[in-house]
């Protein structure tokens, strides 16, 4: 029978891999722009829809990587060290109770 891993193990794994995931997302957007047919980035100027969508994705991924990623990692680390329950965590960080399963 399946038993979920302990919260500490999940947070440790997430903390280790979260920054790498966000860096890969930014890299894939840049790779997509660089390999846009037929003339890479220069052809994006003619494809306004593609340029706008890739710009939005790049800005959001950069925000995730540079702003929200470090904040999330800090909150995960703080929660592990404090050893607080999910309900107490949701109260402290103003997360609605429906997202907690204590």
What are the segments in which pLDDT stays under 50 over at least 5 consecutive residues? none
Bin the helical content. Answer: over 70%
Q: What does the average pLDDT come to?
A: 79
- Largest sheet descriptor: none
Question: Helix-strand pattern, N to C?
Answer: HHHH
Q: Hey, roughly how much beta strand do the residues contain?
A: under 5%
Shape: elongated
Structural class: mainly alpha
- How far apart the termini lie comes to 21 Å
> What's the alpha carbon Rg, rounded to whole Å?
19 Å
Q: Number of DSSP strands?
A: 0
Number of helical segments?
4
Short note summarizing the structure:
With 102 residues, the protein is an all-alpha fold.
